[in-house]
Amino acid sequence: MSEPSATPLIHGFEFDSNGGVKRLSWEDVKSAPAECPGVYRWLHLNRLSPEVRDWLTRTSGIDDVIDASLLQEDTRPRCIRHGSGLLVNLRGVNLNEGAEPEDMIAIRIWMTESVVVSLRAFHIRAAQDLRDQIMAGDVPETTGEIITFIAARLTDRIEPVVSDLDSQTDDFEEQLLQPGASLPKTALANFRRKVLALRRYIIPQREALSHLAREGDGILSQGDVLHLREIGDRVTRIGEELDSIRERSLVLQEQVVEERAERMNQRLFVLAIISAVFLPLGFVTGLFGVNLGGMPGAASPLGFTILCLIMVVVTAGLLFLFRRMRWL
């Protein structure tokens, strides 16, 4: 089941201490604050909806500074403690139809002990996974479990993308090991662009998760903190793998440039040899082509044949000389 894209509230759930779950509609949410006494909530909202913007700034009860951060257009992964809550921005690979995975999409989260408010502009599967789990009866016991689940699912989907990039690097290396093999001119440039686009967000995401685990006192349980540290370690390994892929791609780029330069040098060398052979021949033909009296052999019927034999001998001599000098 896909997320509804037009509604302000994409997913909304209210949980009580007895494990009860209540699905919320936009009508339940739009006229009340985000937090509700005696229960804890998860509200997953459409950031592009004007109704959501109006609710956040007027009704939600969330600080104006946090509202502005949740609604801003471009964000990098980060985690900031503000009062009794945490502002968390994370990124996930874009697996939507027609999109490129490296065009990572953001999920912005405000969390306290009693509410998790998450916003996104494009469909993000980690939120859909959490919704499916809740509908299957597996209810998160705290708001900390909600954000931990989302962070884990985001990481789960980043790892295969990075693994595919590593496999693609192996394929490039194998291609270049083949004699005479070459890569399309834009192949490595496009590949490096993908790696850099992922790395741009993976490195700060690692710091954001580490900060979340440190700053979550009073909101996150010890189990949540341990889980977040494990997720942070996974993101660290992803970052290290991206660094390795980037370095390997740089080596491949240098190898491609060297091979192209070598092929160019070989072609220029062939042209130089041809020029060296034909330069004396051109001089001889130019000299004997002048239309002046007294040219030797001008009156002899064998003059042209003798001249051709002389040029053949000169050519053979030059080729023999180049061979002895190991130019050929």
TrEMBL record:
Mode of membrane association: Multi-pass membrane protein
Family: Belongs to the CorA metal ion transporter (MIT) (TC 1.A.35) family.
Transmembrane segments: 268-290, 302-322
Major site of localization recorded for this protein: membrane
Protein name: Zinc transporter ZntB
Subcellular location per the Swiss-Prot or TrEMBL entry: Cell membrane
Organism encoding this protein: Henriciella marina
Signal peptide location: none
PANTHER family assigned: CORA FAMILY METAL ION TRANSPORTER (EUROFUNG), ZINC TRANSPORT PROTEIN ZNTB
CDD domains: ZntB-like_1
Keywords linked to the UniProt accession: Cell inner membrane, Cell membrane, Ion transport, Membrane, Transmembrane, Transmembrane helix, Transport, Zinc
